[in-house]
Amino acid sequence: MGGILSILVQYFPPRAKWSVDEIGDLSGNVYLVTGASSGIGKACATTLAAKGGKVYVACRSEATATDVVQQLKAASGSNDVHYLLLDLSSLKSVEQAAAHFLRQETELHVLFNNGGVMAPPEVLTPQGLDTTFATNVLGAFHLTNLLLPALLAGAKSSPDGTARVVNTSSSTAELATLDYQSLIGKKQRSAHALYAQSKLGITIFARELARRYGDQGIVSTSVHPGSINTELFRTQPAILQWYLRLIHHPPEKGALTLLYCGVAPETKLSNGKYFIPWARPGKSWQPQPCVEDPAVGKKLWEWLEDRVNDIKTTTS
Ligand SMILES: NC(=O)c1ccc[n+]([C@@H]2O[C@H](COP(=O)([O-])OP(=O)(O)OC[C@H]3O[C@@H](n4cnc5c(N)ncnc54)[C@H](OP(=O)(O)O)[C@@H]3O)[C@@H](O)[C@H]2O)c1
Question: For the chain, which domains are there?
Answer without folding.
Answer: 25-315 (3.40.50.720)
